[in-house]
Structures are given as C-alpha cells and as structure tokens.
Hints:
The complex is a heterodimer.
Chain A: E1 2-3, E2 14-20, E3 23-29, H1 31-35, H2 44-50, E4 55-58, H3 61-75, E5 82-85, E6 89-92, H4 103-117, E7 124-125, H5 130-139, E8 145-146, H6 151-156, H7 167-175, H8 181-185, H9 189-196, H10 198-207, E9 225-234, H11 237-257, E10 260-271, E11 276-287, H12 290-303, E12 314-326, H13 337-355, E13 361-365, E14 375-379, E15 402-414, E16 421-426, E17 429-442, E18 462-469, E19 474-480, E20 490-496
Helix pairs in contact in A: 9-10, 11-12, 12-13
Chain B: E1 7-11, H1 24-33, E2 38-44, H2 50-59, E3 68-75, E4 84-88, H3 91-107, H4 117-122, E5 127-131, H5 136-145, E6 150-155, H6 162-176, E7 180-183, H7 194-205, H8 227-233, H9 238-250, H10 273-288, H11 295-311, H12 314-329, E8 336-339, H13 346-351, H14 366-369, E9 380-384, H15 388-399, E10 404-412, H16 415-425, H17 430-440, H18 450-455, H19 463-475, E11 479-491, E12 502-504, E13 511-516, H20 517-523, E14 527-533, H21 534-548, H22 564-571, H23 584-593, H24 598-607, H25 610-614, H26 618-625, H27 644-649, H28 659-670, H29 674-690, H30 693-706, H31 711-724, H32 731-750, H33 752-761, H34 770-779, E15 783-785, E16 797-799, E17 804-806, H35 817-826, H36 835-841, H37 846-854, H38 865-872, H39 881-886, H40 904-915, H41 928-933, H42 941-944, E18 950-961, E19 968-975, E20 978-985, H43 986-989, H44 993-998, E21 1001-1010, E22 1016-1025, H45 1028-1034, H46 1050-1053
Parallel strand pairs in B: 1-2, 2-3, 5-6, 6-7, 9-14, 10-13, 15-17, 20-22
Antiparallel strand pairs in B: 3-4, 4-5, 8-9, 10-11, 11-14, 12-13, 16-17, 18-19, 18-21, 19-20, 21-22
Helix pairs in contact in B: 1-2, 7-16, 10-12, 16-17, 16-19, 21-32, 21-33, 22-32, 24-32, 28-29, 30-31, 32-33, 33-34, 37-38
Amino acid sequence: xxxxxxxxxxxxxxxxxxxxxxxLRLGAVNGAARDRGMAVGMALADARAVxxxxxxxxxxxxxxxxxxxxxxxxxxxxSPHVMVTPPDGLVMESxxxxxxxxxxxxxxxxxxxxxxxxxxxxxxxMAATSEAAQALVRYGVHNGQGPVDDEGGAIRALPIAAxxxxxxxxxxLSRAGLKTVGDVAGRSMAAIAxxxxxxxxxxxxxxxxxxxxxxxxxxxxxxxxFERRFPEPIGLQSSIAACFLDLMHQAxxxxxxxxxxxxxxxxxxxxxxxxxxxLMIETGLPxxxxxxxxxxxxxxxxxxxxxxDPGFGYDRITLLVPLxxxxxxxxxxxxxxxxxxxxxxxxxxxLSTRLxxxxxxxxxxxxxxMPEQAQYAxxxxxxxxxPWPAPAQGEPPLRPLFLFDPPQQVDVIAEVPDGPPHRFRWxxxxxEVSRFEGPERIAAQWWRRKEGEIPGMGGLTRDYYRVEDRHxxxxxxFRHGLYEEKPDPHWYMHGLxx
Amino acid sequence: xxxxxxxELIAASNYSFLRGASHPAEMVARAVKLEMAGLGIxxxxxxxxxxxxxxxxxxxxRESCGLKLVVGARLVFADETPDIIAYPATRxxxxxxxxxxxxxxxxxxxxxxxLRLPDLLDHAEDLLLIATGxxxxxxxxxxxARPGAVWLxxxxxxxxxxxxxxxxxxxxxxxxGVPLLASNDALYxxxxxxxxxxxxxxxxxxxxxxxxxxxxAINAERHLxxxxxxxxxxxxxxxxxxxxxxxxxxxxxxxxxxxYEYPHEPVPDGWQPQGWLEHLVMRGIKNHFANGxxxxxxxxxQEEFSLIRSRNYAPxxxxxxxxxxxxxxxxxxxxxxxxxSAANSLVCYFLGITPIDPVREKLLFSRxxxxxxxxxxxxxxxxxxxxxxxxxxxxxxxYGRDRxxxxxxxxxxxxxxxxxxxxxxxxxxxxxxxRLSSTIWGSWGGDVPQARVExxxxxxxNPVIARMKNLVDQLLEFPRHLSQxxxxxVLSQGRLDEMVPIHNAAMPDRTFIEWDKDDIEELGLMKVDxxxxxxxxxxxxxxxxxRQHGLGDFSLRNVPLEDPGVYQMLSKxxxxxxxQVESRAQIAMLPRMRPRKLYDLVIQVAIVRPGHIQGGMVxxxxxxxxxxxxxxxxxxxxxxxxxxxxxxxxxxxxxPLFQEQAMKLAIVAAAFTPAEADGLRRxxxxxxxxGTVDRYKERLVGGMxxxxxxxxxxxxxxxxxxxxxxxxxxxxxxxxxAWLAYVSSWLKCWHPAAFTCALLNxxxxxxxxxxxxxRDALEHAVVVRRIDVSHSAWDCTLEExxxxxxxxxxxxxxxxxxxxxxIADGRDHGPYQSxxxxxxxxxxxxxxxxxxxxxxxxxxxxxxxxSGLWEVRRKPPAQLPLFAHAGAPELGRETxxxxxxxxxxxEIVADYQTLRYSLKGHPMQFLRDAFKQEGVSPCSHTLDRxxxxxxxxxxxxxxxxxxxxGNAVFITIExxxxxxxxxxxxxxxxxQRSAVMAARLMLIEGxxxxxxxxxxxxxxxxxxxRTAMLAGLSGMTGxxxxxxxxxxxxxxxxxxxxxxxxx
Lengths: 498, 1063
C-alpha cells in the first residue's frame, strides 16, 4: 500500500483548489501550508483570510489519476497484482513475491526508496487484507513503517474512522463511546448490524482479516511490439522488405482485434556487428494498412542522407507501434468523397515523411479582425482541416485570397480624411483607380500594446479599400492610421484579388 | 457654410447593460458639446437610464443648452425582427411604450424581456418608430400600423460596404415610402471608450480579450459624431440627415410631463384630502392633549398644515397613515414606527405614525419644511420583520398590482466584482484577481500601502496592474443590473405601468418598477418605505409573553418612562441583546456616557457611528459631558446675535451631531439659505463619492468667518460635518431608534427571561449569536432549561410564571418545525412513556430521533445522550405496518453490556457541537490545569488586574469585530469564568493574521488598560492559536491523521462553531 502526496517543491505554502458545490475549496496542501493551518476541505476564501500569501493552483484530477496509474504500472516490477484506490492509494498483493525482495520489510523498503527517487513521499503498510493495509496506512499511529509486529492489535487500536463508514454513523459510534475499531469489535455484531447495517459488520470483518475482499488489479495492455530473429543474417533489400511486410501484417491483425490504428511506427534493424538502425514514420490518420506503411518507410529510406548499409546483414528486426489510436473498421461512402480525402491524407503523409513533418503546412482559420492574423499555418500531418467561415450570401469577397507579408508600401493620391486612392504607384508603376469600395476600418489591437488602453496609445487604425484599375485588376490597399492619429499616414498594398 | 442640423436618435447608454459604454449624463454632455440639435436615448428594452439623462439635460439648462432630449427605448425582439427604436410622441405614447415593455418583462423570467413584432403593432399608438436592418416585410407592416411615423435607419460605420448598403437602403426607402434616417447607432460618447467597450463585450460573452476575436467591434466608430461629420458621411443622401430633424420635431413628450397623482383610497367619500387629514390630526390631538392644544403646538401645527396644503401633500400623509393604521388594526397588531425627514412633523406625531413629539424634542422642522425643496416628504416606516410581508400584500391588495410597485435598486459595479470581471476579461486567473481584490484594493481609491502591494507579490508599476486599474476605474459605478429595493413602494392613482415599465422580481408575488429612488425623487413621484426591523418583532414577542404570563400589559406607548434601573444597567455597559447600543463600540462607550435620560440615548445612538468617530466629535462631547471641559460656544463678531449658536448646539454640548444641526448651523452662522443648507445635506451624503465638498467648505467656512467667527472654529465645524459622510443621522431617526433602544433595555432590565426568549425566537438578528444571548441570560440569574421532548415547543417558552426560560426545538440545527409541532401535539394525550412511545405517537422519522438524542433532549424519558443515541439508532428506517397498527413495541430487548459512561467533557463538547452552547459547563474548564501551568489567568482576572499590568488569558473566540476604518480589531474571548475584551491594533494584525483569523481557542498576551469609567481592555501584543487543544477534549482522537477527507461534515472536525466575524 503506497500513498502519494504532493511532493514538496519548495517551502512556500501551496494548495491545489477545486470547485466543490460552487465554492472553491482546498483539495490538497503541501507541508508548508499544512504547518500554517491550511487543511483540505477549507474554503479558499477562508484560507486566504488566514494566509493571504498562499499560492494556489487549480487541481487537475485527471492528471492526478493518470499519474497514479503510471505509478501503479511501475509497481508491476514488484507484483503482478496492483490495484489503484483513488485518489492517492495503491494496493499491491505481495503474497508469493516478497521473498524475491528480501521479505516483507525488504519489499516495503524497496518500494519506498524507488518512490523517493522520483520525488514521491510514501507511507507503506502491510496487512492480511487490503482494507486493513489501507486503514493502517491512513490512520495508523506508527507512521507506516511497513509490516507491524502485532497486526491485530494495531488494527484494533485504529480510530473508528478507519471503518470507512458514513460520517454520520462514525459520529454516532463515537458518541456511543466506541472510539476504536477494537471497541466496536467488542460489541455484539447483531447490535452493530441493527444500528449501522450489514455493511458496517462487513467492513469490520474485513479490517480484522476475517473476510477477504477480491482485489481488482489493473490490466496492462500488451505493447504492440513484433520481432523476427534470423539464424543467418539477411542483407537483401527484398528479404528485408518481405520481412517487414510480414511483421506489418502481424501488427495489423493485432491492431484490428483491438480496434486500433497506428499513428507512429518504429522499425529497428539490428546488424550482426551490433550496429542498430532505427527508422520512424508518422501518419496523419490512424492506419493499419501494411502497403501504406511500407510505402512510407520506403519514402523514409529514400530520404536518408546515408543509405542503409546492411554490412554483413541483419540478424533481428523489430516493429514497434508506440502511438496507436482507436480505429473502427470503416464503411466507404458512395460518392467517393471520402476516398478523395483519404488520398489527400495519404499524400500529406508521404510528403511529410519525405520532407519532414514541419515542411508541409496547412492554413487554418483564426478568429481575428486583423487580416494577417485571420489564418495561421500548422504542420499538416498533425492537424485535421478546419472548415473556413463562409462569406455572407450574395456578398462579394471583401478580402483577397493572396496577402503580402509584409504589406508593400505604395504612394497614393487620395482625398483627406478618408477618401479612396485616386491613383497609386506600386513597384514603380502608376495605377489609375477606376472603381473602389471602402473604407473598411479596422482598429488596432490595443491590448497587445504597452499602455494601449490609454487614449492615443492603442495603435494605428487601418482603412482598407478594394480598388480596381483601368484593366480590371483588383487590389487591396490600406492607409495605416487615421489623420487624427498620425498627420502623414503611409499607404500599403496588402493583397491582390484573384 | 455651417453644417445642417442633426440629431442622433439611436444612442444607447450604459443602461444597455454590457453594451453601452457611457453614462447617460456623458452622452448628453457630449451631444451638447458637439452642438447637436437633439439626442435620443434608447436602451435595450428599457427606460431605466432615461431619467438620469433627463436630469443631466436639466442641469445643463434644458433647451437653453441647444439640445432637445428625447427618450424612448430600443426594442429587441425574440422573433428575429430587427431591432426597432421607439419614441413616444405624446404622454399617451409613453404609456403605450411602458405597457409594451411591461408586457415583455412580465412574460420573462427576471431580467429578461420577451417581445414580438405583433406586440409592438398592438401598442404602436403615438409612437415614432425607427426600423433597423433592411427587412421589407417589417417596414410594410410598421408603415401600415403607423403611416408616416416610421423611419429606416441608415448607418455609415466604415464596414467596407457602406456605400452599397446605403444604396440598397435608398432603394428600399423609395419602394416602401419609408424615409431614411441618418444615425451612428451610438454605444458610447467618444472613440476613446473603445477599450472599455471591448472589455464589456468580453464580460458579456464570457471570453478573454485575447480570444474574443471578431466578437469585438471591428473599430470604434459607434460614437456620437458632429452634425458636420454626419453631413460629410451622408453626402450621398442628405435627406437622411434632414429626416432626423423631422422626427425630432414630432416628439412633444417630455419626462417632466409625468404628472403625479396621489391615490385616492385613503380619503373617504365626501372629504377633501386636506380636510380629512386635519380631521384625523384633530382626533389624534385628543389622545395627547385632553385639555386642548398648547399655543406653541398650535403655531407649529398651523405652519405644517399650510405647507402641506400649498404643496398638496395631504394624500401622502394619509397614505402612510392608512398603511400604519391597517398594520395596527390586525389581530394581533403589527408593531410599527415611523422615521425619516417628514417624521419630524407634529402631523406625524398626532397621526400616530411616530412616537416622537417634535415640539418637546425641538426637532428642526425646516429639514422637512424647506420651501425650496420641491420634492415629496420622506417617511420610512419600520415594521416587525417577520410580518412585513403582510403589510406589503395589503398594499398590493388595496391599490392593485397595476398601481403599486416596489422601486428598483440599481446594482452598480463595485470594486470587488469589477476587479474580478475585468481581470477575467484581461485573461488573468481567478486566483490573481481574488488576491488583487482582497489584498490590494480592499480600499479602492484610498492609499494602498506599498508594503501591502509587495507583500501580495505585485509591482504597482507593473503595466498589467496599471491597465487593470485604469479599466476598473472606468467601469466602477456602471450600472450592472436592476434589483428590487428593500421596501420602497411607489403608488399612483392611474396605472403605474403607463408611467414606468414593471419587472418581475426574483421573489414570487413581487414586482418592481424600473426606476430607483433617485429617479423617483427626480420626477417627484411618491414613495413610501415599508421596512423590516427585527427588534420590533422581538419587542412584540416580549410584550406577548408578558401578557401571557400575567406580568403586565405593555405596548410601545406605555412602557414606564425614564426608569432609573434601566439607566443603571446601561451605565455598566450591560446591553447585550438591546437595540442599537449592543455593539462592542457601544458597550465601551456606555460607561463613559452614563445615560440618565432618553435624550442621552438619542445621542448615544447617534454618536457611536463611524462618521462621528472620524469627525473627532466623540471626545469633545464626552469631555464636555463629564465636565472636564466647559461647553463654550463661540460668538460671532459684534453686531450679530451673540447667542445664536446656543439654540442650535446647546443640547449636544456644542458639538454638531445631527444632520439638522449641520444645516441649521449653516443657516444661522454662515447665512446659508434653506435651499443651500439642503444642498449641503445632500452633499454630506455623497461626500465620499463625488467630492462636491470643496464648494461647501468655502461657502461655510467663509460665511462663518464673515460673521466674525474664529476661523479655527469654523474649520472644525466643517470637519465635523464632513465626518458625517454616509453615516449621519437626522435627529428624528436617532429619536425613533433611541426609543426602541430604551424599550428593549427596559425589557432586558426587568424581564430578562421574557426578553431573551423573544430574542431567541426572533433570530437571526442583532450582533450576538444565540449562545451568547443564553450566556448573558444566565449571568442575569435567568434559569435556563435545556431542550426536552416532554417540555419544549418549537419556539423557546417561559415556565413557572414566566421566570424560567425553556429552550425550544428551533435552537436545534436542522430540526424541522413539523417534527416539533408533532411532538408538542402528541403530549396532549398524556406524557410520553418511552422513546418508542413518542416516536410512534408523533410519527417521527429516524433523522428527527437522532437529532433529539444527539441534543440530549430525551432525559425526561430516562435516556442519557449516549443511551438515547444507541436506542434511537435501533429503529428500523420505516415502521412495519403490522407493528404500527398493533402499536406494540416491535424491538426485542438486547442483552449487551452497557455502554461506557460519557465523560462530562465529552457531554459539553457534544452540546457545543449540536447546540453551540452548553448548560453543563464550559470546554475551558477541562483545559484550565494545562493553562494554569503556563501561567494563563482566567478571564475574570482581567476585571481586577491593575492598569498597565501584563496578562495572559485564553478562551473560546466570540465575535471579532473591526468597526469603522478598521484601525482596530475587537476580539472577545470567553472561558468558564467570563469574558475578556481584547483590542488589537490593525498594524499588529498582519504579522499574526492567521492566528487572529483562524483560532477558535485563543491565547492572548497583552497589557491591561483600564479607563477611569472602569472599562477594561486587554491591549493585545500577541495572539496564539491554541485550537489544537480542543481536539483532545472531544475524545475523537486521531481522525484520519494524514489526509482529511474533503467532504466531511464540518461538525465533526469543528468542536466550536465559527464566530460571527468580519472578513
């Protein structure tokens, strides 16, 4: 039984808070905070009244649970049967394994040391039943020093809270003068059952080791790891490919059974002289299509600076799928649109594999008035496409598809204060404006500027005009600044309409 | 060429909550500055802000400022209809508009308004309508309903396609015949409001400014623009600008047209209000002066009558009289008492509204009389708090819901909420903003000590903190939402909903109007304050108990006057439970004041207020009262009446304590006109907010100096008046409160059992928790008996001729009234024989039984707390029908060894846990030995320890109070010997804050300070939290030692309840 606590990061009082029935309450406190009167369950407002410099952070129960699960997996090194008792307990079945670690005391010491190495404070207790061990670790007086000499006595000395009854029942027992587990055990079980129900008796018997509760150990999924060993090293490209395809089919079968698809595949080639080659590919969508994965590995190999050198051949090849996601068997749509999408995804996978994941990017929309911020580029393989906002019905596109980054300065003749350009000079050429629309006035993002909330400090406003020259070509031009903001604002070409 | 005239007719104020970003007055001022011909204020489905706009416009000189103000509302529909702005052209139209809004409000949950286009078409008479959006169907329907009174709004807001939109609007206008109207759809006065407007948008949408994206306005164009600018923007369509003048000229309605008519109900047929009022007053005189009215009274009464006649206030007095009369006519009658400015009048005295004789008490009638004040008189009436609802429902029943409504209270943005919301919008975490609001800006606007800021971990020069402060300052005092006033009723002769829209309140059966008390005053509507006062309930219950037990038949009017025993008691500072004089500050003052007559209480009530302590009046007053200093009143220069201040200040030893005195001082000594003096009174209430102070300072000090007064004296007078701030009392308030303070003290003095019983039955009220009230009763030799199923009722009761107090089940946390009643009813058929017998006859559920056992209320049935609990837990959750029918005990006998006996200390702790007090002893007595070894004295030792001696005392913490400016924290602790009063200076608080705030058991080290009057305080040096010692008492050793559960019932971990504290 292991109990995890927040590691003491520093000496400042720290508390994690969570919202309980509408009020922020402390969910966990560190030693420094506890020393200064903070306790779990306190309302944050009360805690602050007492200790204004309490540092608080939001409680992340999911992360805690995740971490506890990881610790549980780690405990698999000592016992095959490990159970989590959230939020902070682990139960380990030590029957038949403790002799491997020097007996009960040795096992307890090993667990504590290993946990201390990763910054965890633990309390360990051993007992005949998991309930008893949990009770000893949480309520025991001798500070969880592993096995106890007189287990029965220790358990009988525990406070009644260790029974895990409802608060109301625990209070009633205490009011009746029954303060310890032993006091309760001394009464007739019929009298206890008549007042506190059968479950109280069961809880008591389990604590006393008179009844066993089943332990529900965590099940760890087998890793997706596949291996081939060869008595004679192989070196031929074709043999390697065949072996890989074989491995991949095996992996696909396994993943299909578990409704998984791989997002990351690692191939390791062990050369007979001890050298090792490791290749890794990723896909944008989960897949278990051997041909597709093989093709991507081909791309990967082709992109290598130094070609693979089999030397005297490989004597072992392993395939590992470190990242897999749920993938159900799909049914193809009639219109084939899905196919198109799949084809694009495949192309993205291939190009990203060949050129590197960051080389291939896609634009996704971003909610902003600023034209240059209304979209941003992300690695295509890591992000699914996001639909673009559709323009209003019957409206011409107000913004061009092509933007200059940065905008290019132009010389403009225009009417003051906010008339459209009459003519403008761009890249040395003079353009006469024949038609225009605008301005579309876009104010600067004051909150991104230092002191931007102060009048006059919020940044320059832009006036955008859609203009058409005599040849029907359309441009997107803006004046950077109103005349009241800046006496002589500059003009810029920001984009071209198709 | 001068610009064509233009009126902005679509302008919102910040009463379009979280959309408009300027106060109504700012919009009006800006419109005047821009030389607009007119401004139309129209908020979203509301006219809540228009009175303020109207007032601002009046203050700027009405039409003479060049602006015509029109008021209406922007109708926002629930059925996709684009918004329509409606302006009433006439008084009739205004009524249609308010009824339309009322319809929408009443349909919706609180705070919403659900309107559909057909509703508008039904109410469209005399409304001028501006349609937004370009919906041809809507335009045609409007045009049909109101031909020639519909406009289509056109905007040039720099959206990129303005010209195309305008062309489309022109085409639509031509096709439908609806003229275009140029507007800027303004949301704020100037473009500088953009950051604030963006923050409002974020608060509304619940997003941060960084992630708000296109939910923010794209630019800052929606501000008021000058006629020249509008003409330039609309040069393609000048008729749209001209149209604004057409609409403007069609509006004849002005808010001051809302003539007020008093309801006629209180006047019987065949009588005129004035005649009826005089008749009633004459009837009242007979009760007070059987031998005819003395001349002095007659003169004052004639003055009052003539003023009331000239102002036509008679219906107002009659309405108040009607309500009071009704409350008293009920069986049993509801106690009530009036106060407020008009309560200074003899008319109120003779009508029985107030118990204060203004002639005898020389009250300043001019506070009410002021000819310059053209506003209705103000009378607040306090009723028993438990029965006020009956009075309110009577008002609704008598005047009808369409003619009676509660005033609104505008809830403004306050520092805490503003910091939290602005912080959230700026993307700060809740934790940071919580820390900012609690540690740094606890006193917003005041100086923030550098140390505090740094201690909280913030650099005041940090740009984020500076930005926060800038925006918070702008948002402060913005209206946030409307709520209902505590008890201000507006009554009218005509339909109220044709005057002002009516909303549903959060409470069922309540409605309130959209205007608050300032608006109501501005428009001269009549308001009656129907307030709730807990002490009246308590006094009534005391009188009832006395009557019931043959201890006398008393009422508010026949309690023996000027009883020396009462003053003796008060002079000892023995006032826990009484009205107004029970706080720690009051208790500390009583032995110094040594009240000897009612008027001393009037002063006592008025003087121990934060304002007076700040204004430095308390000490001069006390010195003069005790004769240490002579009450010399300076005289003006020669040529003026030398004793002119005598009349004003003599009765308060030359120190101005009441608002009336401040006013009269200004009139007499600084030659203020009554109107100016009234302005001073108003400014006093607002000193803290508005800084109108300087104007009056110059005027007052200058005026007094001109009359030859010593400048230093004049300065001091002003400082004292300034100190009133928000806390100043008019004397009539103090008189009314002092009378209740006297009556409650009389009850406490002569009938402590009945008084404590009534106090406990009127909870929650007052400063002290029930446990302290019970303890105080015990100290006054009252026999208090515990709750017992064979004797107690729901309420606390009196036994043995009214001298013994029996606690009731209501003292038991979570016990239900129906259980208590069932227990009491069950006793009618003979006493209970056993727990089972009682459970059966009173049909009590297991939860009730457990609570009774836990509270040790089964003693008369032969059960101790422990055996009782063990017994009642045995009950099966539901009665088996077969056994229930047979009525036979269904559980066999158990043969278990008896439970261990409960030690006394556990009994006491259990008492504290269930009842918050114990009649068996005090937890401290079990810790006494331990404390003795540490050299800690019992609390009683503080009383006889000499001044200046060091002392260490320990005890359970009773309330911590931090009055007024918070320079000092009062801490009271209690042990088995009594209480000790500690005083901790705020500067010493910080370093031991956690001990002070968290301790339930506290050890105090300090020095005894004993005043000449014998008041003892421990001036605290150090506070030590010894709460941990309590845990050992409960016998619940070793709860979970290492991980307390988050969901444990607080009762289990707390031995002692939290005290009533400041935070």
